[in-house]
Design goal:
The complex is a heterotetramer, with 2 copies of chain A (309 residues) and 2 copies of chain B (594 residues).
Chain A lengths: L39 H14 L7 E5 L14 E4 L5 H11 L4 E7 H7 L1 H10 L3 E7 L2 E2 L5 E2 L23 H7 L4 E6 L3 H13 L4 E6 L11 H7 E3 L11 H8 L6 E8 L28 H9 L3
Parallel strand pairs in A: 1-2, 1-3, 3-4, 4-8, 7-8, 9-10
Antiparallel strand pairs in A: 5-6, 7-10
Helix pairs in contact in A: 1-6, 3-4
Chain B lengths: L2 E9 L4 H14 L3 E7 L8 E9 L10 E6 L2 H7 L3 E10 L6 H6 L3 E5 L1 H8 L5 H13 L3 H12 L4 H22 L25 E4 H11 L2 E6 L6 H9 L1 H4 L2 E4 L3 H14 L2 E6 L1 H17 L3 E7 L16 H6 L8 E3 L4 H18 L2 E7 H5 L1 E4 L19 H5 L30 E3 L13 H19 L6 E3 L6 E6 L3 H13 L4 E6 L1 E3 L3 H9 L4 E5 L5 H10 L5 E4 L8 H17 L1
Parallel strand pairs in B: 1-4, 4-5, 5-6, 8-9, 8-10, 10-11, 11-13, 12-13, 17-18, 17-20, 20-21
Antiparallel strand pairs in B: 1-3, 2-3, 2-14, 7-14, 12-19, 16-18
Helix pairs in contact in B: 1-5, 1-6, 4-5, 4-7, 5-7, 6-7, 8-9, 8-14, 11-12, 18-21
The chains are: A alpha/beta (309), B alpha/beta (594).
Bound molecules: thiamine diphosphate (2 copies), iron/sulfur cluster (2 copies) and magnesium ion (MG) (2 copies).
One magnesium ion (MG) binds next to helix 3 and strand 5 of chain A.
Chain lengths: 309, 594, 594, 309
């Protein structure tokens, strides 16, 4: 039963009705404008599947995106969605989470959005560790603006803004997340939505910040890193014998692999670390959006005024 | 009528600030009305700082020139403040300083040397020199020793009993010595002039002495602030620090963010989720928030920004005052969307803006900017206990749908951006099964989905902008201070209310009948009320703490009304009533000549 | 006089853009004057897009309604554009489409079905359907087949001979078939109307068909641009891409930065080092540059920002046009400092702004903002070869000291922020032993060191703001188009010059004698010239591509002049001359009634 | 001999006159406003010494700073100095360097400036690798704004904005720089200006981006990380037997040390990597600030116009 402020969710009062929850529960009437074959379709499918797996209803999650092809995802599903600004969804999501931690907060954005213009929020959110799941549709290109090189474009990648090939060392998002102290670092592939769904579900389940970098083919502007290109190279770390995602040093080495062999799966996970919300005193009594104004009453006010006499 | 000004001057790091606030509060507790300002540089140590405290028997609204008593912690302070001393002013200083007696005599000032350092080191250590100065000043002026001691005891309590006792001893000895040595010779002493209004010295409700930022933060807390995110920036930092300090008591989520972009984005996220969210900053930080301001406007999320102006442009004069960001705040961000801008004129109005901004933000579902400045933010003003009243505070969330109301909706019926006659679409917070919707910063339809259709675009733009017309209805016109039939009208906005109003008696004394029209509700501009008020104006000057007369230009843009002259100040130091009066008299004289 | 409009409509991804530009250039090479606009959505595939091409015998300055020939690549295009067709218009479409003949007849339009897909697949593949449509359109209209083939050959040359040949074959067959089938039935055919102005079909100098952004980039390159840093943002990206593509030829450092803040900071760094530096962006990116804009103002470093406006607020209508950022650009950043704002009205003026902005930036040592918009940026206009002349381009670095001049200085003599009557301080670049100095964004003295002294503050503020008065002297007043003694004056700014001027003959035809006052130099506002021009105005309307009539408000602020009506458009689609004329006629009618 | 545009430096024409160059060559008349005992004095001394060591004259270097106590350094020395905006000096410096690579470009800023608000430029500059030396005065506090916690404040550090102690994992600048692919990563201590000078000199000598994180005691607002605190913990990596700064994995481990033992010295250096300027075609013929406008002449213009006929 929703509270007086209308913000509550079924999960708030403990009762949880998941009967009838299917991927169709997340469907709306909007037809995606993505190019046929775009990897973003795989991400959309995987996200819906993960939510169904975790029995999270549309009103219990908030999906915050940025600006870019992939960020349009919130327009194509029935969910509390917020398409914000280019590069800013993590900051907006942090505000949502800290105001109402009862929502499952998920960020979806592109590589330009997440690692380029949004790099500072990425770095600081990773070390801050709020309970936010961060899915980056990494197509190694600025797609919506029609094909400029991105921070993850490989060296030598030619675009309208890198006619002689990208000269900068690409961002390695996994390594960066590890260096920032992220407690969950994974990589998925849009061409394998089922596996991706399992990673997203693990990320949502994980308490704290979870990065899921998704290899997402852009069939229109990235003619190098195609489905085939990725498919030929990826392998699953959970199928490697002896790989332990709790081993930081192993993760560090694994995260550096790129090129002929590209690992996908949970690269690193450290459990039992408190998420940022647990340090916030005002959240001790539950989400602040559920706190009545009456908390600050006349007696409190008079006490505050007394400080100035 | 008693009305005296005291300056405490010294180097940064010498405790000028704490001395000033101690002296101010001791004056209040001695029964006087007090108004204090602080002048300091953007550095941690070194360089001249001062505190200027005005003590009067009547209600006062600003600092005032000239100064009657100078507590000089350095020789430099004497050199700097000499020119601003009143005839018969006293200069209290350590006897080790060797001031230029000649120059002082020319100003009719008297030196009162005192063994500050000696007293301080005897009871404690050198650091307490400033306590000695404060004690002596209080004695010479005739403040209540008990009042002073109560303030000192409280201020030093965190440092332990020993420190408290030493300081009390230093203050008391200096107080008594100053009285003994110089009683009678200092002509501006308060002793026996007006009996202290009350003998309140303990912490029972009495008049308050509060800074603007404290009053605002208090107002915000009362207004139901639930979230504040910020990046430190003078002179707004103290709002944030005030709320952080009381986060547990008030139940406010506070977040020191990685930068200002994150700060406002977090607040917008919190506002979207349903928390009353605040971002305090100054012009430089606001510059970084511009893009997100437009986002809040477009997705119709309430958020309050306290933009505490300082001297610009760019890093400028970081610890000083200016009203240089008015037209910037009004037009910041690409494209057009509703925003509300308030520029409180007094500490009471700044307090009120603290809660009123949230009501406006939620009623009109748009960003609200409270434009203050360093002068308003950091000055201490005396406010009657009753003037900040709990009953006055209203918390109006506008058309926020309750859970019960939403329960009654059919599935898929709720439309976040519904077209309505007022432009206000009933708002549902995320978390309710009947109100699952997406908001996007692209143009969108009533449900929130992206569309570029022409009709929808026009309808949604009209809808959003209608909210501005709706809000305009409750924007307050200018407040008139002084006689209706004045020959000269001083038009001002924001923090200048106090100095402008206090210049009226000075003008009156020079035979000029003037009044003040003060604007505090800036946007949407209260055009009709302004035009009505302007009809009665015979001749107008604008008084502004900036270079180009931004408000005068805004007024012309909105009403066509032109002022005869813009009285400007842009050196980072606040206008005093005397400076305003002098400039007005010039204008009157010039007008008479022409 | 021939004056026809052609629309090519289809889905994103169907090649509407390349068809449109091919058709436009073929029209130019056939001897006609051309003006084209493109309408597309913020998505990569799907959704209706169109290209509108105007072909005329006289000089033209904007697109025009209604449309005489529609090349429909989808059925949807027919539905959408039917309402905008002229009597007797033709609709060329693939014979597989089954259009609604009834509706078309009601509009007096004729269907010309063609086997586009069949021709395309026979000579090449389905993708060439648009080439077939273009060929048929060219044939029906009566463009030169040779001209069309020369364009196609060039456009596809990068894809290899086979692709070129197939496309040529497709175009030629469709051209001839359309001629054969429908010659005589299409009443708007150009054939035999006016002989093509020239037979220029090869690449010898002739009239150019160029987009605004290309003209601007060309102007910037000519103006000595040495550095461009940017973050991609529609509709400014093409300026950056144009310069990147030619970086070797032109010797320009180009940097795709991590964000817009970095982009402008890099440009300011380059400007400080002595390179003419440019940052192209749109409103959202400009929002992020606001803080650094103030830095450039404060440290007096020249930098040029091309702000190509699009539909706002926030992400808004990213691929569409608007003039919504005027007051934002004028007031962006905290505090007050000189800036210059240019808003070119035509492609030629946009070209000129490309080099002139650098001169102004270096002469006045301040940021210069060139305010364009999607309409000006992306539209293709015919420009005479001579109109963009090398001789017209001047490169004036203002008071930039040469190495030789600096050699003559004494050590320590050079003062970067020297007080001068014009406010312009001779500038030395870092790297010379006689000119080692520090610049800071805090207030500073003549040498550049931080100081908070009052006198210095006032002197430096005055100095900086004096530059604005100096620059105002060379700001151009409004340009009048049309008769001096008009009964109605259309006031506009920026990209609306073309559509407004083209509305004059339409008004004339309705018996309204009107003229246009167009402002392209916006700030410092040319007050005197504006006032002079306004004296002759009998009745004025403002024509603006925004919601609140920003220029009309600016005009009132600067001159007190009020327009009678603001003709606004804010749906992201550019004003056509017809729409402006219609709104003006309404105003005239209403005025007559009242 | 300066060129016609006045930008040239002695180093441009190969001749280099270093006679009489001493630390006093970098002195000006401004008295620093830093608190007595502030670690920034040590940085100022070290920077001057490094320049003298390398025989770089004041007009040959540009020092770009941000906003904060330490950033005031440019006001206190005779140098081409530019105090920019809070968080932005790296971006400004990149512009300076790309326009005039003949200048030695050095960035000096605080930890808040460099790793907080300026984090995105830090991350991208490190992977871009322009030839810029970046000195961060890391006092683990926001000093100029009077004592708020910074991105490098240790967990639990109490300030006015972290009353219960900082809850976020601090930024580890060295690790982050390594994750971004920085080619020179060092840490110095303001209490040992001579050693610091040698690190700065090595950083300037290094071709490419060089980070020198400086432990800089703030005697006024940081009462935890004092001179003594640092002095007790630091040790020099070059005195560790067998430590090889060219070994990336060793550097990665070394960079993680913090707490009881804090390494100072060159943590990582990889030589022989081209700096970003080398990829910029327009710089092939020298600094663009020295290129005459005449380069784009009428013939070039006519050729460009022809594209549109
Ligand atoms: C402040 C700002 N700058 C630039 C843009 C233009 N823009 C829109 S999407 C985009 C980049 C898209 O790349 P990415 O984030 O990788 O997403 P993708 O389209 O590849 O999914 C840019 C630069 C913008 N919307 N806002
Ligand atoms: C955009 C912006 N936000 C905030 C500030 C206020 N400010 C000045 S210095 C500073 C932080 C100083 O910390 P740091 O960078 O560590 O330098 P320190 O003073 O410790 O040397 C801040 C927040 C500013 N000048 N500009
Ligand atoms: S352009 Fe690329 S990323 Fe965008 S929708 Fe098409 S395939 Fe997907
Ligand atoms: S406050 Fe700290 S960092 Fe700033 S000058 Fe003083 S000691 Fe140095
Ligand atoms: Mg991408
Ligand atoms: Mg610091």
């Amino acid at each position: 039963m929703p509270g007086a402020d209308g913000t509550t969710s079924a999960s708030r009062n403990g009762r949880k009705d998941t009967q009838g929850l299917t991927v169709r529960s997340f469907a709306n009437h909007v037809k995606p404008t993505w190019c046929p074959g775009c990897g973003d379709f795989g991400v959309l499918t995987a996200l819906k599947q993960a939510l169904v797996q975790l029995e999270i209803w549309p009103h219990e999650a908030a999906v915050i995106s940025g600006i870019g092809c992939g960020s349009k995802i919130v327009d194509y599903m029935r969910i509390n969605g917020f398409m914000t600004l280019h590069g800013r969804p993590l900051a907006v999501a942090t505000g949502v989470k800290l105001a109402n931690p009862s929502l499952h907060v998920i960020v979806v954005n592109g590589d330009g959005d997440g690692y380029g213009i949004g790099g500072n929020h990425f770095m600081h959110t990773a070390r801050r560790n709020p309970d936010i799941t961060h899915i980056v549709e990494n197509n190694q290109i600025y797609a919506l603006t029609k094909g400029q090189y991105s921070p993850t474009s490989d060296r030598g990648f030619k675009t309208s803004t890198s006619p002689d090939g990208a000269a900068e060392l690409p961002v390695n998002p996994l390594l960066l997340a590890l260096a920032c102290g992220a407690t969950f670092v994974a990589r998925g592939f849009a061409g394998e939505p089922k596996h991706l769904a399992s990673l997203i579900a693990a990320g949502i389940r994980h308490k704290g910040y979870a990065l899921i970098d998704v290899l997402q083919p852009c069939v229109t502007f990235n003619k190098v890193n195609t489905y085939e290109w990725y498919a030929e190279r990826i392998y699953r770390v959970d199928e490697e014998t002896g790989y332990d995602p709790a081993d930081f040093d192993a993760a560090w080495r694994m995260a550096q692999q790129w090129g002929d062999r590209i690992p996908v799966g949970i690269i690193y996970q450290r459990e039992g670390i408190p998420s940022y919300e647990e340090f916030v005193p005002a959240l001790k009594e539950g989400p602040v959006v559920h706190q009545p104004f009456a908390k600050v009453d006349e007696a409190v006010f008079e006490r505050l005024k007394l400080e100035y006499t | 009528m008693t009305d005296l000004s005291i300056t405490i001057g010294g180097d940064a790091g010498q405790g000028v600030e704490s001395s000033g606030s101690t002296f101010s509060l001791a004056s209040l507790r001695s029964g006087w009305n007090v108004f204090s300002i602080q002048d300091y540089r953007s550095r941690i140590r070194g360089g001249h700082n001062f505190y200027q405290i005005r003590v009067a028997s009547r209600e006062i609204r600003s600092h005032s020139d000239p100064v009657h008593l100078l507590l000089a912690l350095t020789k430099e302070s004497i050199d700097i403040h000499l020119a601003n001393l009143a005839p018969g002013a006293g200069i209290l200083h350590d006897d080790s300083l060797r001031p230029d007696e000649e120059a002082a005599r020319a100003h009719g000032a008297h030196f009162f040397p005192m063994p500050f350092t000696e007293i301080a080191t005897r009871h404690g250590n050198r650091v307490m020199t400033n306590t000695a100065a404060v004690g002596a000043g209080a004695g010479l002026l005739g403040l209540s020793l008990d009042a002073l001691k109560s303030v000192i005891a409280e201020r030093f309590s965190a440092k332990g009993d020993k420190v408290v006792e030493s300081n009390l001893a230093v203050a008391e000895e200096a107080y008594n010595l100053a009285l003994k040595r110089y009683q009678g010779t200092f002509q501006h002493s308060l002793n026996g002039r007006v009996p202290p209004r009350s003998e309140r010295r303990s912490r029972t409700p009495g008049p308050m002495l509060i800074s603007g930022n404290e009053a605002f933060a208090l107002g915000a807390a009362l207004g139901g602030c639930r979230f504040v995110s910020a990046y430190p920036m003078t002179p707004a930092t103290t709002i944030f620090e005030w709320l952080v300090k009381r986060e547990k008591q008030l139940g406010i989520v506070t977040k020191h963010a990685e930068d200002e972009i994150a700060a406002i984005c977090m607040a917008i996220g919190a506002g979207y989720a349903g928390a009353r969210a605040l971002v305090p900053t100054s012009g430089g930080g606001f510059s970084l928030m511009v893009e997100a301001l437009g986002m809040a406007g477009m997705v119709e999320v309430p958020v309050v920004i306290a933009e505490v102006q300082r001297g610009g442009p760019s890093t400028g004069l970081p610890t000083r005052t200016e009203q240089g960001d008015l037209l910037f705040a009004l037009h910041a961000s690409q494209g057009e969307f509703p925003r509300i801008v308030l520029a409180p004129g007094t500490h009471e109005e700044y307090f009120e803006a603290g809660w009123r901004a949230f009501n406006l933000a939620e009623k009109y579902q748009c960003p609200v900017i409270v434009l203050a400045d360093q002068f308003l933010a950091a000055s201490l003003s005396t406010i009657a206990w009753e003037a900040l009243s709990f009953q006055s505070v209203r918390r109006d969330r506008g058309q926020l749908l309750t859970g019960q109301e939403l329960d009654a909706f059919d599935n898929g019926e709720y439309r976040r951006f519904k077209l309505t006659p007022t432009g206000i679409s009933p708002r549902a917070l995320p978390g309710h099964p009947k109100a699952v919707y997406t908001v996007v910063t692209d143009e969108h339809d009533e449900e929130g989905h992206i569309t570029e259709a022409i009709d929808n675009r026009v309808a949604q733009m009209d809808k959003r902008m209608r909210k501005l017309e709706e809000a305009r209805k409750e924007m307050r016109g200018p407040k008139r201070y002084g006689p209706k039939d004045a020959e000269l009208t001083l038009i001002c906005w924001g923090s200048l209310a106090g100095p402008a109003v206090e210049s009226l008696p000075l003008l009156e004394a020079q035979g000029v009948r003037a009044n003040v029209l003060h604007f505090s509700d800036i946007w949407p501009f209260p055009v009709q009320e302004a035009e009505k008020a302007l009809q009665a104006v015979k001749r107008a000057v604008a008084v502004e703490q900036n270079y180009t007369g931004q408000f005068a230009r805004l007024l012309r843009m909105c009403t066509g009304f032109s002022v005869s002259r813009i009285i400007r100040k842009f050196d980072g130091r606040p206008f005093s009533p005397q400076q305003i009066a002098t400039a007005c008299l010039e204008e009157v004289a010039q007008h008479a000549r022409s």
